[in-house]
Amino acid sequence: MKKLKIAFIGAGRVTKHHINLLKRLKQYFKIVAICDLVEGKCDEIIKNNKSLFIKKYKNYHKMINECDLDIVAILTPSGMHYEHAIDIIKNHKLDIILEKPPALKITDLKHIYSLSKIKNINIFPVFQNRYNKAVKFLKKSISGGKLGKINICSVRVRWCRPQRYYDMSEWRGTYSHDGGALTNQGIHHIDLLRYLNGEIKSVKAIMRTLGSKIEVEDTALATLHFKNGSIGTLEITTAARPDDFEASISFLGSKGMAQLGGVAVNNLDIYTPDDKMCKKYSEKFPIVYGFGHLELYKKIIKFYKNRKSKVIEKNDCLKTIELLNSFYVSSELNKEICLGKNLQSKNLGKKNEKISKLYRFKK
């Protein structure tokens, strides 16, 4: 297959990670350009990747018009994903990689998918932790009945994000462009709840802001009822002090227990059917992003080689964003919420034109 020509919109820390991993796939990808409203961010990346001959832009409209591209990766603030994606779908025939979360509102995500279908454009959402060695092993193990019937599923994320973290950028800690601990830090664990243990029937959530002066939650507790009959608990906070302590997801079944841990569910901490599997299916991550993006790009390559090979199905992605919104809806209404109704929080993803203007690329 010919090399896929890719460009990046946004030049933050995660962009550096994407580029570093794509170097391993240089026979399949050519990194053409990078764009950011702050040109200095582009300069730093280009300086550290001189051999790639990456062009820099301050405006992605100009970048797309001047460069021959196959695909763009949208790595802008979460609340801008929808606006940037819709603009590219409407005005440019380019496939799109959408970093997490692909959209804050389920109505926005449905619009992205419906318009991309009309325009024959492919959308690749990023849920990179699905591709971790430990997660893939546990997925196969649970599906194969190694743990028996799953009875209890629990998520615990106890991380530290001090006020200075939220003060770094205008979009952080806002309902319009970030979401709180659930949306920013907890989205991957939320995705793994349903990816590993099946669909969720209902949730009851409580949210609080305990450790920082922000408008969104930095702490969320919830109980869950799964369609398979199991029950679950969720505890996600960025109000832990003074450091990160834990990020785990555990499954208690009729035949045994398994628990994933590490900085990004990269370790198989407990596996009672055979504890020797823990070492075999754990891997060290130098940074929180891990290596899942590399596996995602490999799946994208496979898709272009064989269009029947899907990356993540539309409905799969939509259900994760509906689950995310269900926690907010439950907290807002102070009651248990049943899923399956395209639930949409009244707060998450609400408009804030003042902030949007700061991250909008003028045509």
Short overview:
This protein has 363 residues and is an alpha/beta fold. It has helices spanning 13-22, 39-47, 60-66, 81-91, 106-119, 133-143, 163-166, 181-185, 187-197, 276-280, 292-305, 314-333, 353-358; strands at 4-9, 29-35, 55-57, 71-74, 95-98, 123-125, 150-158, 200-208, 219-226, 231-237, 246-253, 257-261, 267-271, 337-338.
What does it look like?
The chain is α/β, with parallel strands linked by helices and 363 residues long. The chain has two domains: 4-128, 3-Layer(aba) Sandwich (Rossmann fold), CATH 3.40.50.720; 129-295 and 314-338, Dihydrodipicolinate Reductase, domain 2. It has helices spanning 13-22, 39-47, 60-66, 81-91, 106-119, 133-143, 163-166, 181-185, 187-197, 276-280, 292-305, 314-333, 353-358, and strands spanning 4-9, 29-35, 55-57, 71-74, 95-98, 123-125, 150-158, 200-208, 219-226, 231-237, 246-253, 257-261, 267-271, 337-338. The strands form two sheets. An eight-stranded mixed sheet has the order 13-12-11-7-10-9-8-14. β2, α2 (39-47) and β3 form a beta-alpha-beta unit. α4 (81-91) packs parallel to α5, α5 (106-119) packs antiparallel against α12 and α9 crosses α12 (314-333). It is globular, with a radius of gyration of 20 Å. The model has no long low-confidence stretch (mean pLDDT 96).
